[in-house]
Automatic annotation (TrEMBL):
Belongs to the TatC family. It is found in: Cell membrane; Membrane. This is Sec-independent protein translocase protein TatC. Keywords: Cell membrane, Membrane, Protein transport, Translocation, Transmembrane, Transmembrane helix, Transport. The Tat system comprises two distinct complexes: a TatABC complex, containing multiple copies of TatA, TatB and TatC subunits, and a separate TatA complex, containing only TatA subunits. Substrates initially bind to the TatABC complex, which probably triggers association of the separate TatA complex to form the active translocon. The chain crosses the membrane at residues 28-46, 81-105, 117-140, 167-191, 203-220, 226-246. It comes from the Bacteria. The keyword Ribosomal protein does not apply. NCBIfam families: tatC. One of its GO terms (molecular function) is proton motive force dependent protein transmembrane transporter activity. GO terms for cellular component: TAT protein transport complex. The gene is tatC. Part of the twin-arginine translocation (Tat) system that transports large folded proteins containing a characteristic twin-arginine motif in their signal peptide across membranes. Together with TatB, TatC is part of a receptor directly interacting with Tat signal peptides.
């Protein structure tokens, strides 16, 4: 079996297809191990986390004076819920590992200097992911209160726990992934897939899509819920564009210097021949 060359012996990270598949398998295995460990930790903190997640529904009874309760509609539902929440917690706990493994697989062909910049930027990805989850958590009580306000008088909200938790986890995951999009954008620029000018030309449609996503993911009673999500995403998007433009300029400068060196080296033999 051919051995994948190390970074020192292979600074540009060039690999055959088989070596790429081997590296993908290894990185998926490491990410899976981290997810399993995170899920085990999630089992131990399941009860306090479930208490915190159910707090918005309890507040409907205590603050708004309406009838609302979470109920399990099946014998195996409590166990299924424990697995679902534990895996989600494992995904969050293991995020530094799987984000790094994903980035390391995408960027093996980067030069040493570019890889250092990339690693510095990926260090921001984990706090951004956590920030997205936290922002979703802040918006959740308002979203639950507004959505249950449509319940007619004389009716109670007996909410299925799996449905409620699925809604909540999808909301939080959507926020977390949305906060990672600028990192992905910059990563695609680093590997040469897109250029900053291309992204900048489509800023209008991007702003519209971000606002649309914010309106759908943050169903509040007013515009503030959408505002809380849209503004950070827009700021991150334009910061990512700025970094992409700077990287494009640096790449163009390096290419021009390399072309000049090649041209100078090509002219040297001809001058010697003239002598």
């Amino acid at each position: 079996m051919p051995r994948v060359k190390g970074r020192k012996a292979n600074p540009e990270g060039r690999m055959a297809l088989k070596e790429h598949l081997i590296e993908a398998r290894n990185r998926l295995f490491k990410s899976g191990i981290a997810l399993v460990i995170g899920t085990v930790i999630g089992f131990f903190i399941y009860n306090p986390v479930l208490e915190a997640l159910s707090e918005p529904v309890r507040n409907i009874n205590e603050i708004d004076g309406r009838n609302a309760a979470l109920n399990f509609d099946g014998v195996g539902s409590p166990f299924d819920l424990m697995i679902q929440i534990s895996v989600f917690l494992g995904l969050v706990i293991a995020s530094p590992v799987w984000l790094y493994q994903l980035w390391a697989f995408i960027t093996p062909g980067l030069r040493v200097k570019e890889r250092r910049i990339a690693l510095g930027f990926i260090a921001v990805a984990v706090p951004l992911f956590i920030a997205g989850l936290y922002l979703a958590w802040l918006i959740l009580p308002s979203a639950v209160r507004v959505l249950t306000d449509f319940t007619p008088a004389g009716f109670a909200n007996l909410i299925s726990v799996p449905v409620y938790i699925t809604f909540l986890l999808r909301l939080m995951l959507a926020f977390g992934i949305a906060f990672l999009l600028p990192v992905v954008l910059f990563g695609l620029n680093l590997v040469g897939v897109i250029k900053g000018k291309q992204v900048l030309k489509s800023w209008r449609i991007t702003v519209f899509l971000i606002c649309l996503f914010a309106a759908m993911a943050a169903p509040g009673g007013d515009a503030m819920s959408m505002f809380y999500l849209a503004v950070p995403l827009l700021l991150l998007f334009f910061v990512a564009i700025g970094l992409c433009l700077l990287n494009d300029k640096r790449r163009e400068k390096r290419t021009a210097e390399r072309d000049a060196d090649i041209e100078a080296n090509a002219d040297t033999p001809s001058r010697l021949d003239e002598v």
